[in-house]
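Table S2 (continued). Query chain:
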Amino acid sequence: MELSWEAGAIKLHNSVDGLIRHNVFRNTFRAEGMNRGGTSVDAKLINNIFYHCEEAAIKMPTKANEAEGNCYVKEEGGYLRILYPQPPVCLHLPAWQEFYGFDLHGQEAWFDVDVDTEKLTFTCKKAAKKPFAFPGELEKRNFVFEPEKTRSVDASALIQADFYGIEIENGRCLPGPFAELDPNRIYDIDPRKK
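Corresponding output:
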């Protein structure tokens, strides 16, 4: 998903029992308005890649949802949010894990992702610079700086293969739709060619 206009990459509202898994969300931003009601519970955000989502990667109305195995790439500040009860909480991954038990196997990364919407291709590569942080902070948070070093996570029981049909082995996979993140590869993501 790219350029979500309403509110970051994922904003859960008016949903029950949703399952969002093995996607890439990139360069999303926020627009005001569109207030609605609903229970917004029991959604599962499993094994996705969130890339540079500016305002927030995930906005959950309440903590009655689940997030696990996600990879947050080039996210800064409080990019993981729970909106109610007020005041909203805006967290980074370590706080998300500590205070809510979400994404205990999630990871933070800092590399470049590019989606060519004309050619329908996906590429990833090591970033030219590391993010600003206080001394020791990046090491303490165990950031991934090279796409190929993204750590595997438990595969969702409902997923048997990656985007290309490569079977998942040993119950482990990478976050996102691909079996590997090779910085030397141009991934064809045109679903019509599958």
